[in-house]
Design a protein that fits this description.
Layout: E1 5-6, H1 15-19, E2 31-32, E3 35-36, E4 39-44, E5 50-56, E6 59-65, E7 81-83, E8 87-91, E9 94-98, H2 106-109, H3 116-127, H4 132-149, E10 153-159, H5 168-179, E11 185-192, H6 198-207, E12 211-214, H7 222-236, E13 240-244, H8 253-262, E14 271-275, H9 277-280, H10 284-297, E15 300-303, H11 305-311, H12 327-332, E16 337-339, H13 356-366, H14 371-378, H15 380-386, E17 401-405, H16 409-415, E18 420-424, E19 427-432, H17 439-444, H18 447-451
Parallel strand pairs: 4-7, 9-10, 10-11, 11-12, 12-13, 13-14, 14-15, 15-16
Antiparallel strand pairs: 1-2, 3-19, 4-5, 5-6, 8-17, 17-18, 18-19
The structure holds zinc ion.
Length: about 450
């Protein structure tokens, strides 16, 4: 499958430019020329079956068991047939909460502190120095990393700016969305601050943003700001995705305001609450009450383990809290829940692989989910929160598939195998494989070593 892979040409960020950064993206961030797939033969499913998967028009039309021997029907192999032997077919992940405009800026920002306030200050100081092209370069690289690891749908929050062109982040991400239109569904939420006037928000939507976002919990009057953002969403006829209560101490009025306001919205209109860390610090009665309000209002919750484990709880040296909402409790209460990474290698989180497998692993160890539920949150749950149609190796579902060289889902989440083939709407958009090298042969071919005396 390596032959399917190539570095993207036009519009790609210069490798030299990015690699010059101390935290330059890994070379594995790449995409392929999308190629149609008609059939995947002999591929495994998480339930242990070995099947052929037939695809037409970007949709899975048949999943046919081929028997316990796992021998595929390769009588008529062709360029549109993938030999799936040794691979596991999974629903392709979705990233329901990214900040691609901030991604990969850690090396340039390096905040002196490590909590949310320090990260916000560091980003604001850095953001006045960046233009649309700089944001575009990092965002494109980050989006390609997501695709290479298997993610075929992304919702990114994008800052509006007080200086210069206030919409330069939105414009940069609209360019990324256009350039990667064949590889990934990209939703853009305008990250509205309380200092952003309404006309700036309207202009962001006109420039290409899909949703209204924001973080009212850090506004001077979080209740008033929550009402203002929902008023704007109703005026403009769009959905909302708000950062909700990304803290552990304090009241919880913003969540109630949010759920009260959107409870009467029509079904299907996007209403998402990201973070919700505070719910995890409430007692059992409070958690149940929050779950009931979220469920009745149809609000989808996005939990973001890697970033909130990094940012939250730093003031507590004893029994340090994890900063996550009670994920299993929300699920048990009927709430739609997805999971993502939030920030990747920026002032809010210096690490991260842009890989949903990493998020699933953290859900297992930090949110105490079982493997299947963890994987649900980064795939079907994330797609539900994003308002996307179902995907996966199921007849009638969109053929957004992640093929991983692994024996089962446990192996995927534990090992994060490198060998992956990514399909979006039935077309291969990325294929990667690990290679075995002979270190002595490699050194023998090094020009430096050959020239050494
Ligand atoms: Zn966020």
């Amino acid at each position: 499958m390596d032959t399917l892979t190539r570095q993207r040409g036009d519009g790609a960020p210069s490798r030299g430019t990015l690699d010059a950064r101390p935290d330059g993206p890994a070379a594995r961030a790449h995409t392929t020329v999308p190629r149609q797939v008609d059939r995947i033969t002999g591929v495994g499913l998480p339930d242990g079956r070995v099947v052929d998967v037939d695809i037409e028009g970007g949709v899975v039309v048949a999943v046919t068991e081929v028997g316990g021997a796992g021998l595929p029907d390769l009588a008529n192999p062709g360029p549109a047939v993938i030999d799936g032997r040794g691979y596991l077919a999974l629903t392709a992940p979705a990233e329901p909460h990214a900040h691609l405009d901030k991604a990969l800026s850690w090396g340039a920002t390096r905040p002196p502190g490590c909590d949310l306030g320090a990260a916000i200050d560091a980003w604001r100081a850095f953001s006045v120095t960046v233009d649309e092209d700089e944001i575009h370069e990092r965002a494109l690289a980050a989006a390609r990393r997501l695709v290479a690891s298997g993610t075929t749908a992304v919702r990114t929050h994008v800052d509006l700016h007080d200086d210069g062109d206030p919409l330069r982040g939105i414009r940069a991400l609209v360019r990324v969305r256009d350039e990667l239109a064949d590889q990934v569904d990209l939703q853009i939420a305008a990250m509205v601050g309380d200092e952003d006037p309404a006309d700036r928000v309207r202009a962001a939507l006109e420039a290409g943003a899909d949703l209204i976002g924001g973080a009212p919990h850090i506004a001077p009057d979080s209740i008033a700001e929550t009402h203002r953002l929902i008023d704007l969403a109703e005026e403009l006829g769009v959905g909302v995705d708000l950062h909700v209560d990304e803290f552990l101490d304090g009241d919880h009025a913003m969540l109630t305001t949010f759920t009260d306001r959107v409870a009467s919205w029509e079904p299907g209109r996007i209403r998402t609450a990201g973070h919700c860390c505070r719910i995890g610090a409430m007692d059992a009665l409070g958690q149940a009450s929050a779950a009931e309000a979220l469920c009745e209002a149809g609000v989808g919750v996005v939990t973001l383990p890697i970033t909130n484990l990094y940012l939250q709880g730093r003031a507590e040296c004893t029994s340090t809290p994890r900063g996550l909402p009670p994920v299993q409790g929300l699920l048990d209460g009927g709430v739609t829940v997805g999971a993502g990474a939030d920030n990747v290698r920026d002032p809010f989180n210096p690490v991260g692989r842009s890989d949903a497998v990493e998020t699933a692993m953290l859900l297992v160890v930090a949110a105490h989910l079982d493997m299947d539920t963890a994987w649900h949150l980064v795939t079907d749950g994330a797609r539900d929160v994003m308002g996307l149609p179902p995907a996966g190796p199921v007849p009638g579902h969109r053929a957004d598939l992640l093929l991983v060289r692994a024996g089962g889902l446990d192996d995927v989440i534990a090992d994060a195998p490198v060998d992956r083939i990514v399909l979006r709407a039935g077309r291969v958009v990325s294929a990667t494989a690990s290679v075995v090298v002979d270190p002595f042969l490699t050194q023998a071919h090094s020009p430096d070593l050959q020239e050494a005396p």
